[in-house]
Design goal:
A hairpin with a 5-residue loop joins β7 and β8. Among the domains are: 63 residues, K Homology domain, type 1 (Ribosomal Protein S8, Chain: A, domain 1); 77 residues, OB fold (Dihydrolipoamide Acetyltransferase, E2P), CATH 2.40.50. It is elongated, with a radius of gyration of 44 Å. It has 5 helices and 8 strands, in the order βααββαβββββαα. It is an alpha+beta fold and 224 residues long.
Length: 224
């Protein structure tokens, strides 16, 4: 019977489904599923896998028809469930969307964080669209992870501090303006006039004193 049956095939049939099982931390399962299953649906649509099943214990089972789609989904899930650390810097990250309050930046495939408008630039921005657009690439630093696992990013933290440059530059004294010089010149004659008038007043006082003393002397001589 063994002679009549064909030997087993050494290669899998191209129509045979591929199944990959991976483990993630149980508290990261919700990141794969997303709100209302939005994230897991987008992974299936983007990669072309047949299904992604998750368990409460962190088990993730991916079913795909080809190796390429399977590897893509594995990469996205690995990036979604990675454990970023505050202080890490991510280079050349793409801005995926822009909101009135900031920009959502993709630090890894399928993993985005919010860069608030106050953290996008060292200067003041009225709107994020004034300086950035979807598709732009920027460097960001992870500055906070909230209780929901959402990432807060900053591009401003990696930019040169303009304030420190202005403070380090030596202070220059303001040169006197032409108008100031004219004002200073115009004040000098006034001081001279005041000194002349005070001298004239002193001379007048002395004259009055002499004239007042003269009659007194003449009366004394007559009495003698």
């Amino acid at each position: 019977m063994s002679k009549s049956s064909p030997p087993p095939s050494k290669a899998l049939s191209p129509y045979a489904p591929l199944i990959h099982v991976m483990k993630v931390k149980p508290n990261k399962v919700n990141l794969i599923i997303g709100s209302g299953g939005k994230t897991i649906k987008s992974i299936i649509e983007e990669t072309g896998v047949d299904a992604i099943d998750t368990g409460d214990d962190g088990t993730v089972k991916i079913t795909a028809r080809d190796l390429s789609s399977l590897e893509k989904s594995k990469t996205i899930i690995a990036n979604l469930t990675m454990v970023p650390k505050v202080g890490e810097i991510y280079r050349n990250c793409e801005i995926k969307s822009i909101a009135p309050y900031g920009a959502f930046v993709e630090i890894a495939p399928g993993r985005e964080g919010l860069c608030h408008i106050s953290e996008l630039s060292s200067g003041w921005l009225a709107k994020a669209e004034d300086a950035f657009k979807v598709g732009d690439r920027i460097d960001v630093k992870l500055i906070e992870i909230n209780d929901k696992g959402q990432l807060r990013l900053s591009s401003r933290a990696l930019l040169p501090d303009a304030d420190s440059e202005s403070n380090s530059s030596p202070t220059k004294e303001k040169a006197p303006q032409k108008d100031d010089a004219i004002k200073m010149t115009s004040r000098r004659p006034r001081r001279k006039r005041q000194s002349e008038s005070s001298g004239a007043e002193n001379a007048t006082t002395k004259t009055l004193q002499k004239s007042a003393a003269a009659p007194a002397g003449s009366k004394g001589s007559e009495a003698a």
